[in-house]
Each structure stands twice: as C-alpha cells, then as structure tokens.
Design a protein that fits this description.
The chain is of the alpha/beta class and 459 residues long. 30% of the residues lie in helices and 24% in strands. The longest helix is centred in the first third of the chain and has 24 residues, at 81-104.
C-alpha cells in the first residue's frame, strides 16, 4: 500500500517549507518530510541562534567600553551563560515552532516525521510507508565536517551544532578553523569571557577573501585578545593533564595549544549519504553534493535538489533563492537560473564584513580592465560617531562598462550597506548611478558616492 502525492519534499530547511506552501496554494497535494528539527540549520543551529548569541556578546562588549561613551558601569561585566543560552533557545525555538505550525496548517500539505530514503526515482519510504510522486525535491541541508584528525576519537569536541547546548563559559576555547563559523564563535566567546585561540591550517584567515580583508579581520580579533595560529600544517588532538592539547606545528609559537574545550569549524558536508540516492539514480560529486543543472534539476527527470545539499551555495539566502527559482519555473513557466545570481554574503564578526561580487583576485584573474577604490572607515563620520572605526570600504568596477564588479565593506553596517551596490549590480546599471545619488546623512551608505569618486586603475 502506498500514498501518491503531486510532490514530495524531503527536508524543512529554508527552501522546503516555502516550496510546500507555494505548491499547496496552487492546488497540488504535497508531502513534506522532516527527520529531526523543523526549520533546518538556519533556525536551529545556524543563523538565528548564532546571531542571537552574537547580539548578547555585543552587549557585553559595549558594557565593557562604557567609559568610552561617557557613562559609568559599576563592577565587572559578568556573563550568565545559562541566561544567554535561554534567550537563544527562546528565539530559535519560536522560529522552529513557527515553521512546524505553518506547515501543519497548510491545506493540501501532509507533514510526515521520519527518515526518508529513496526506493526508486518516484518512490520514497518513510517509517515503512511508501510515498509516490512524479516530482521530488531534496532539501536535506548539511552538517559540520568532522575530519580524520589524529586523536579525534580520543577527546570530546564541539561543532556548531553541539555549541548550541553549551550553557557555561569555557575557560579556554580552541577553535580549529579560521573561516566564517570559527571567527564568529571566536569573537563571541572571547566577549563572553573565554580565552580563545584560533588554529588555522592556511597562511591567513578566511582564505577566500582578499589578503587585506583577511589581515584587517585578524587585527580586529587580535585587538580583543584572541590568539591566532596560522600555518598549522598537521593538526592533532590529545588529552593532556585534564585538558585538550591541539597539535599545531605552526611556523611560529608552541607546537601545541592547551585548551579546556575544542570547537571544530573546518567546513560542512551534505546530508546525502543515507538517502538511498543510488536507488533513485541521482548523481553526486566526489564530496557528496547532489549534482544539479542551472535550474536545479538533478540528472534524474522529476527530481530537484535545493539548498546546501546541492553545493551551489551554503547560505540561507541561496537556499531560499533556490526555492524561488524552482517554484517560478514550475508554476509560472519562468526561466530563472542559478547562474543569474550574484555572489553575496556576510561575515558576522563585529564589525561585520559585507561581500558581493568578485574579489580582487577574481578581477585580476578575469584579465579585464578594471578600476578600484578603497576608503577607511575611520573617515566615515557615522563610524566615528559610533566609536567603531575599524575596517574599510573597497569597490571595483569594470573600466569599459562602468558596472560594479565587486565590493567588500568591512565596518559598521557593512552587512546592510553592501546591498546598495548589490541591487545596482542586479540592475546592470553603471556605478555612476550610486555615485550621483543623494543619500541620507549621517549614514555609512552616504559615503559610497565619495568612495566611487576616487576610482583608480587596478594595480
């Protein structure tokens, strides 16, 4: 006995629920399957809980700087991690419950809890029940990578997921991995009061960014007392005198770092290994990501993959855009494509980094004639007024078309201001549109015309 639906959606991350609602509103019968927590990474272990923690850490940081702003704060800033976690749990839980209640309230939508596995390209088995559909959408997300580091099975370690259960202050948190997740947790826990060391195998932090961005972020973190260990060629873990020894073998400093807790922040892997994809004939790449075309179809007609599991983006916003592409193409006969979108993301350290388009390295590699400009946040009055002058604004444009190629805004409000440039890039308009715009004073965005008036040939 089996049940037939117009569409089966596996996973309730950022793409799945919206797709289910769109299909159900169009009169299609939908089955949406969730094996664990509704809402996926963003709601439960990613964006929402971590940015809630970042906000608590920011509040503690500002309190410590009270004298700079002209007020007195009596006594030390003592962070109650149980209350910090409770605040995070309440906000994250509200989103989690909201997703589940929304789905269960949808007409034409059946919510099924359990682990889905393909039986064929048209059938999925959940809790020994067979479900059939001509259209199946995979939205299973990813999880923290746990590499085969020597000693990994000999010591306890944390990942971004298990960090959500921490309700105490680690005495010394050693973070393996100097990219986005590691840096956000590093600054956060330093501000909570932990000693923090970041161990990175590469020669610099956030290696995909330009060197000046990496260096500026490093300086921001080190100014708060975070220790950075780069060129850690052979990382290992071991128990040592009641602590955890992280072998670094760095070019400089001690060959190992002794900490009380270790966080692994060394990348993500897709949740595709236990879906029975082989029985459906769905192809994956060597890392396990589902191979998709420009409209997110897999190699099997009638099966699509959305979100982190397809390797076409590792962000909540790319996952949601995947939903929009698939829904508009199927329901509106549109022709939306992944290749139409412009890369954009943020690093939520404080101050944040807003990024869109190409890096300097990518511009150079393209071989095109380009112009560039860089402006320090210390000359942005809004940043000075807020007492937050770290970072810079950097923009590159095509010398011939005058279109914006890319930008990095490291500084207060950078994660928001970058959208001014991003929207102009989508409009395929020249940079002069921004340069000649009148923006509100006092803001960070008002300096974009000034910055763009200082373009020079790319070095």
């Amino acid at each position: 006995m089996s049940r037939h639906f117009d569409a089966i959606i596996i996973g309730t991350g950022q793409a799945g629920p919206s797709l289910a609602a769109r299909f159900a509103a169009a009169g299609m019968t939908v089955a949406i399957i969730e094996r664990h927590k509704f809402g996926g990474t963003c709601v439960n272990t990613g964006c929402i809980p971590t940015k809630t923690l970042v906000a608590s850490a920011y509040a503690a940081h500002v309190a410590r700087r009270s004298a700079e702003y002209g007020f007195a704060f009596n006594g030390d800033v003592r962070v109650d991690m149980k209350r910090v976690k409770a605040r995070k749990d309440e906000i994250s839980g509200r989103s989690n419950r909201g997703v589940e209640e929304w789905l269960r309230g949808l007409k034409n939508c059946t919510v099924i809890q359990g682990h889905a596995r393909f039986q064929s390209s048209r059938t999925v088995v959940v809790n020994d029940e067979v479900l059939q559909a001509d259209k199946i959408f995979i939205n299973v997300g990813g999880r923290a990578s746990v590499p085969a580091i020597p000693g990994i099975h000999d010591v306890p370690f944390l990942t971004n997921s298990s960090m959500m259960d921490v309700d105490f202050l680690p005495e010394h948190l050693v973070i393996v991995g100097g990219s986005y997740v590691g840096l956000e947790f590093g600054q956060m826990y330093r501000r909570f009061g932990s000693e923090v060391t970041i161990v990175e195998m590469g020669s610099r932090l956030i290696g995909r960014e330009d060197e000046d961005v990496s260096q500026a972020v490093r300086e921001i973190l080190e100014s708060e007392g975070i220790r950075i260990r780069l060129n850690a060629k052979c990382i290992s873990l071991a128990k040592r005198d009641g602590r955890i020894a992280v072998g670094a073998e760095c070019d400089e400093g001690s060959p190992e770092v002794l900490g009380t807790h270790v966080l692994l922040a060394v990348g993500r892997v897709p949740n595709t290994n236990d879906l029975g994809l082989d029985r459906a004939g769905v192809a994956t790449d060597p890392r396990g990501y589902i191979t998709v075309g420009d409209q997110l179809q897999t190699n099997v007609p009638g099966i699509w993959a959305l979100g982190d599991c397809n390797g076409r983006g590792a962000f909540t916003h790319t996952s949601y855009n995947d939903y929009e592409i698939v829904a508009d193409n199927l329901l509106n006969a549109d022709h939306r494509r992944v290749s139409d979108r412009i890369q954009a993301y943020a690093l939520y350290t404080d101050p944040p980094l807003g990024r869109c388009g190409m890096t300097d390295a990518e511009v150079r590699k393209s071989g095109r004639a380009a112009l560039t400009t860089k402006y320090p946040m210390s000359r942005v009055s809004r940043a000075v007024e807020k007492g937050d002058t770290q970072g810079f604004i950097k923009i590159s444009v095509d010398a011939e078309t005058k279109r914006i190629l890319g930008a990095a805004i490291l500084g207060t409000g950078g994660d928001e201001v970058v959208h001014v440039l991003l929207d102009v890039m989508y409009a395929k308009a020249p940079y002069t549109v921004v340069q000649r715009a009148m923006h509100i004073h006092p803001t960070v965005a008002e300096y974009l015309p000034t910055v763009l008036s200082k373009l020079e040939p790319f070095a």
